[in-house]
Amino acid sequence: MAWRSCSVLCRLTGGDPFLCSVRGGSRWPGSLQQRCGFRKAARKPEPKKPEDLVPAHSEPAEPVVQNRAPMQPPFSSPRTFSRLVRPFLFTVGFTGCSFGAAAIWQYEALKSRVQGYFDGLRADWLERVRPQKRGDLRREINQWWNSLTEGQKTVTGIIAANAVVFCCWRVPSLQRLMVRYFTSNPASKSLCSPMLLSTFSHFSFFHMAANMYVLWSFSTSAVSMLGREQFMAVYLSAGVISTFVSYVCKVASGRFSPSLGASGAIMTILAAVCTKMPEAKLAIIFLPMFTFSAANALKVIVAMDAAGLVLGWKLFDHAAHLGGALFGIWYILFGHDLIWRNREPFVKLWHELRTRGGGGGPGGAV
């Protein structure tokens, strides 16, 4: 109480706050002994000279209270939405590059199909001539790989990437790097790269296992419907788009918290399959006896995420889930015709560049 009363007295009398501190119990400055010590006899005021009437500092004594300024938000409100400009441009540019790369990938795959066909015939002939080895680990792996569907083969690389990032979270020396680049937050210094990297990031094993199981379950239908090239473009673009929707909602609500996980991209794949095949029957893994249509499942999921976004539920990033689901629905209804079916001019341009560069040859035209 003595220290607090002395500091209050310094404020009221206009004293310098730095003179009110005591270093290791040393003597008080002589100018403050009368203020903070016992009361002494009042001295007779002396007339001041005209130059003494001019204050030494133009600032009043009141700013002493403002020595500790309140903490400022990560960025001021007038510039809040301006931080979304770079993420928006990154989202548009990355989505365009993803579909452009998918079109080139499909072109190159079709171009090499004839050569691959003859290579396959030669491999089958050598397999028949070569003596079979029992217990060969490589042969067992090849048999397992060949037993997978095209969709399962496509998402195997995605699952492996998620597993590697999950292991990196367990390395203490990488924690700061993981938080900065593998979690998305509009208040962070890194805004663009985490929009993609956080799609492959999971801190909880249960979170990763649940997401990868759903991705594995819907991969066969999604890839057979879109093709592996278009599927990868949609999946990667969905991760960035869902993160951007999460950015917008966080900035609008003022609730800044890091997010991670592949849920937004997986919601796009789920919504695309349910929109394309609404009568398909789905079931919960732990309750296989209860089945429901894909259309009803999609309606329930969208309703729950919309309610979580409006009511402020904090268990999941409902904005990212909802953004991914809406992107999947939009792409099946409009995006496929608007983007993928109009890729022919770009593919022709790439074919001309490949032909001029000497890449053309037998089977070069697609």
Automatic annotation (TrEMBL):
This is rhomboid protease. It comes from Fundulus heteroclitus (Killifish). PANTHER family: PRESENILINS-ASSOCIATED RHOMBOID-LIKE PROTEIN, MITOCHONDRIAL (PTHR43731:SF29), RHOMBOID PROTEASE (PTHR43731). Keywords: Hydrolase, Membrane, Mitochondrion, Mitochondrion inner membrane, Transit peptide, Transmembrane, Transmembrane helix. The keyword Nucleus does not apply. One of its GO terms (cellular component) is mitochondrial inner membrane. It is a multi-pass membrane protein. Its main location: mitochondrion. The chain crosses the membrane at residues 88-107, 205-226, 233-253, 282-302, 322-340. SUPFAM superfamilies: Rhomboid-like. Its EC number is 3.4.21.105. Gene3D superfamilies: Rhomboid-like. Residues 43-54 have a biased composition (Basic and acidic residues). InterPro entries: Peptidase_S54_rhomboid_dom, Rhomboid-like_sf, Rhomboid_protease_S54. It is found in: Mitochondrion inner membrane. Residues 195-334 form the Peptidase S54 rhomboid domain. GO terms for molecular function: serine-type endopeptidase activity. GO terms for biological process: signal peptide processing. Residues 39-70 are annotated as: Disordered. It is an enzyme of class 3 (hydrolase). It catalyses: Cleaves type-1 transmembrane domains using a catalytic dyad composed of serine and histidine that are contributed by different transmembrane domains. Belongs to the peptidase S54 family.
